[in-house]
Amino acid sequence: MQIFGIGIDVVEIERIEESIEKFGDKFLDRLFTAEERAYCDSQKRPHVNFAGRFAVKEAIAKSFGTGIGKELSWLDMTILRAPSGEPSVVFSGAGKVFMEQNKIVSVKISLTHAKQYAAANAIAITGC
Length: 128
Known about the structure:
This protein is of the alpha+beta class.
């Protein structure tokens, strides 16, 4: 196995909170899947969890070397949380195609948040 790419991102939680307040469902529907929305909305401070998922999606896009766009959209990634707390990502659409074309077999992610910031990193791993 080899590392295909590494990505990192930091986002101000307040920026995500303001976007949710200003744009509401239009913002959330553009960036987050139904599963992500259900999880975040069930939390005490949803905007903190949305910020973490925003950061990890950016980190994943950086690990792919594509950014968010044609090869990988916001909705091509669903960030899940295991009962143990471990985060994982499930790919669909163009993101899944990109992984297959580039022989990426796994993407390991980590995310965290503090009072003002959410941060995440991602490592894309190939099978070759």
